[in-house]
Design goal:
The chain has about 725 residues and is an alpha+beta fold. The protein has eleven helices and 36 strands. A hairpin with a 2-residue loop joins strand 15 and strand 16.
């Protein structure tokens, strides 16, 4: 095992404690179509959880084995893939069925039980698909370690002591020796003896020494540690990062001067839907060994999820879009003429036209609609079956003016232009109760509108051969679904138009102009579309139009607030559908941060490319994914009244003012005495804590994996410490 240590001091000063939020409406985007012969895109598979576990003979694995299946070209989760599980080495058995199916998040899992023979176990997961893929899990059957004695009863930080016992492992990296939860480095090992360097960060106090292999541990023996442990001196605003897979890096902080620290524990993994075990140990100076406060943080369901109808319906669209664009991905630039349709004249008021509205694969409703208002950039059609009590001419003019005056110029200036395949210099907005009907009665969420990229892939079944948005129609009496009065939809629809127009531009710039195999990764695509809502709000803010500012900003504010109430339980990487409100709130905050830090033209560069997701962000910012996440999470907690913080700020955004009081992020206080927090973190998520050691004392912090051992490589666990007082 290779152990790397990083303890990087970044000079900065405290500047602001703020953030940004987002609305309560399901906005869907997709594209697809039925075809008699579907070319399935190639897949890839990753270990999501469960690798490198230890156990004794006959023990069932504590963590299920999980793999993530996703499409190679788009990095979108791939559901419905059969995954076969087999023991290819060692003594173990698969529990339950030997073949499972990946779910809507792309995850497939199983568990296993160890046999009676000590040694390594290899379990292989193999995807049964057109493009097979496989990954191996390495597991270890061991005898429980026994610690008999220490070579000394007292020692100094940095000195080496010897542990004598039984059932140790000759390979250095496997042996985890903990000093009241702080890991020491093993420098020599045999089955009966370990030489261990006492962590240089330990304070003067008594500690309990034990040996562990994952969840399997020995009893402990007391050791008196003398003075001389290293203390990291941070000024207000200074930052220290501590991370390595082995969890050998630890940091001791002083409480002098009433110091207070924010501690971020985060996973920088980009493997969506996965969850990663972690443990954070705090060791106060002068505290008696054995008085540790232990808290296990339960794994919760993700907050703010929309009803299944929105997630599942949109996931279906995404899958269809992926299948069709993979087959047609060779049509950029000079071949785009193959997409041309019969040019349409500019719609006139009272023109009648039929549309195909997607409801399910192979199921399109034929809608007859009339052009009720035609502006410079949009033709607004209303379904002939729209219920009474619908939009007036003034309502439709208001929507059209918003598009002509602000939405179109703002979005095209930042992201690029949409296609005009039908040559009418307009986008079509179809208000139809077929959108209302997509939401079952009584659902907690609803489909507010969508852009369907199939309309821009001509020759496909159901394609309308041009640029179309589909939006809710007022339905005050609930004829097609739950009641949707006009008064509520006039507050929701404007932001939907900006959001979906950005999706339309994105599809043109990526898929049609540059031949990308599919749309952007969901989390980044949604973040960019929500940022379009905020850009429109800013334009109205410049015009001092407070009413429209709130119409376009309220949604993103609400979603961002949802994210910041539980950032430890929400992944930036959306794993299913278009994501929960909180997940989309994370995406907005992240894109807003990137734009503030790297310039306003960044969002356009992220669109005008064929790269996807993490690769796209890294290429356009020049910053490593993990480092960028750490900086973003620091900026969320620091961007408020206080010290300036360099990269850890939203330079041109007043997050506190945007979010409005009360500020939703509330780090958990841990105090300054001994503690141990443990739990699981979703990929690309963060937990915030406040640590305030006694003024005359110190606190020693260390981040590790389950049971205090090493963390899984795919978890990308990091600890960032920021002095804030």
């Amino acid at each position: 095992m290779t152990v790397s240590r990083t303890c990087e001091l970044l000079g900065s000063r405290w500047q602001t404690l703020r953030s940004i939020l987002i609305g309560t409406l399901v906005v869907l985007q997709g594209c697809g179509g039925e075809t008699t012969s579907v070319l399935q895109p190639p897949i890839e598979m990753f270990v999501a959880a469960g690798d490198q576990q230890y156990g004794t003979a006959g023990q069932t694995l504590q963590i299920p084995l999980q793999v993530l299946v996703r499409t190679l070209t788009t990095q979108l989760p791939k559901s419905g893939v059969n995954v076969a599980w087999s023991v290819v080495e060692g003594d173990a058995e698969i529990l339950g069925v030997p073949q499972t199916v990946s779910d809507s998040t792309g995850l497939a899992s199983t568990t296993a039980r160890f046999g009676t023979t000590v040694g390594d176990v290899v379990i292989r997961a193999t995807a049964q698909s057109q493009s097979p893929a496989s990954v191996d899990f390495l597991l270890f059957v061991i005898d429980r370690p026994v610690l008999n004695e220490l070579s000394v009863g007292s020692a100094l930080p940095g000195e080496t002591i010897t542990l004598v016992g039984q059932n140790f492992v000759p390979e250095l990296g496997h042996n985890v020796v903990l000093f009241s939860g702080i890991r020491g480095e093993v420098t020599a090992a045999s089955e009966t003896q370990l030489d261990v360097m006492i962590p240089s960060c330990l304070p003067e106090r008594n500690v309990d020494v034990s040996v562990r292999f994952g969840s399997v541990g020995s009893s402990s023996i007391g050791l008196s540690v003398g003075s001389g442990g290293a203390v990291v001196d941070l000024k207000v605003g200074d930052v220290v990062d501590a991370f390595d897979e082995a969890g050998l890096t630890c940091v001791t902080l002083s409480g002098a001067g009433g110091a207070e620290y924010v501690v971020e524990v985060h996973s920088t993994s980009s493997v969506g839907a996965a969850a990663h075990p972690w443990s954070l140990t705090g060791l106060g100076s002068g505290t008696a060994a054995g008085s540790v406060s232990r808290v296990v943080e339960g794994h919760r369901s993700s907050p703010g999820l929309e009803s299944d109808v929105g997630v599942l319906w949109d996931a279906r669209l995404r899958q269809l879009e992926e299948e069709r664009t993979v087959e047609r991905s060779g049509l950029p630039g000079e071949d785009k003429s193959r997409l041309a349709t019969v040019l349409q004249p500019v719609p006139q008021v009272n023109d009648v036209r039929d549309f195909q509205v997607f409801r399910a694969p192979g199921d399109f409703a034929t809608v007859t609609a009339t052009a009720r208002y035609v502006g410079e950039r949009a033709a607004l059609f209303v379904d002939s079956e729209a219920p009474a009590g619908g939009y007036t001419q003034l309502d439709l003019k208001t929507f059209s003016d918003q598009i002509d005056d602000v939405i179109w110029p703002v979005v095209t200036a930042e992201f690029g232009v949409p296609s005009d395949l039908d040559g009418n210099d307009r986008i079509v907005i179809l208000f139809t109760p077929q959108v209302n009907a997509l939401t079952p009665r009584g659902a907690t969420g609803f489909v507010g509108g969508f852009f369907f990229g199939l309309d821009l892939l001509l020759g496909e079944e159901g394609s309308n051969g041009g640029e179309v948005f589909y939006a809710l129609a007022p339905d005050p009496n609930g004829v097609f679904s739950d009641p949707r009065p006009k008064s509520s939809l006039t507050e929701i629809t404007p932001a939907v138009l900006a959001h979906e127009f950005q999706h339309m531009v994105n599809f043109n710039q990526r898929v049609l102009e540059r031949g990308a195999p599919a749309n952007e990764a969901v989390w980044l695509s949604e973040g960019l579309a929500q940022f379009a809502e905020e850009l429109v709000a800013r334009a109205y803010e410049d015009a001092q139009d407070d009413v429209n500012v709130e119409l376009f900003r309220a949604g993103v504010r609400t979603r961002a607030r949802r994210y910041l109430t539980e950032p430890d339980n929400v992944s930036l990487i959306i794993a299913s559908g278009r994501g929960s409100l909180a997940e989309r709130g994370a995406g907005y905050l992240y894109v807003a941060y990137l734009t503030d830090r790297f310039g306003g033209d960044l969002v356009g560069r992220l669109v005008r490319t064929t790269r996807t997701g993490v690769e796209n962000v890294e290429a356009e910012t020049g910053v490593n994914w993990a480092d960028g996440l750490s900086d973003w999470w620091g900026a969320i907690v620091l961007d408020g009244p206080g010290p300036e913080s360099g990269a850890l700020t939203y330079p041109s955004t007043d997050l506190g003012g945007f979010l409005e009081d009360p500020f939703p992020l509330q780090p958990t206080p841990l105090g300054g005495a001994d503690f141990e927090r443990s739990g699981t973190l979703r990929s690309a998520s963060v937990a915030y804590y406040i640590v305030d050691p006694a003024q005359s004392g110190t606190i020693t912090l260390r981040l590790g994996g389950k049971g205090g051992g090493s963390s899984a490589p795919q978890a990308g666990l990091r600890m960032r410490i920021i002095r804030v007082q």
